[in-house]
Amino acid sequence: MKVKVEDFGFDEGACMNYVRYRVSGLDDERMEKLIERLEEDTEIDDGDLIVTVFYQKEYFPFGSEEAKVRMDDFIAREEIEMTVFLSSLLED
After folding, report:
1. What is the mean pLDDT of residues 45-60?
2. Residue 55 half-sphere exposure, CB side, CA atoms within 13 Å?
3. Using an 8 Å Cβ cutoff, are 50 and 43 in contact?
4. What is the pLDDT of residue 55?
5. Pair 17, 55: CB distance under 8 Å
6. pLDDT digit string (tens) for 66-91?
């Protein structure tokens, strides 16, 4: 399983910040298991699972001044954290 941050920003419709992750390398069984267990928005795109997580402003991982200066580090951290989170859902 490989997790990449695909997009992030502010969603006008939801009035919240979001991070969109692309999860690749899943077989059909694992993808269905994640779709069932995730509360976040999910969709399938070209065989990959797209997970969109919405955040209130104070919890948005890319909203700090430090994140703006060290964006690559913050993106890498988010990808690792989402990989661990999704792996834990698959273990249950």
Report:
1. 95
2. 15
3. yes
4. 95
5. yes
6. 988 999 999 999 999 999 999 999 99
Contact residues for 25 (Cβ-Cβ < 8 A; gap 6+): 1, 2
- Residue 92 has a pLDDT of 66
Whole-angstrom distance, CA of residue 79 vs CA of residue 56: 19
12 CA to centre of own chain: 19
- Residue 73, both tokens: 């580090």
CA distance 5 to 2: 10
Give the H/E segment covering residue 11: strand 2-11
Report the DSSP beta bridge partners of residue 52. Answer: 20, 41
Rounded to 5 degrees, what are φ and ψ at 33?
-60, -45
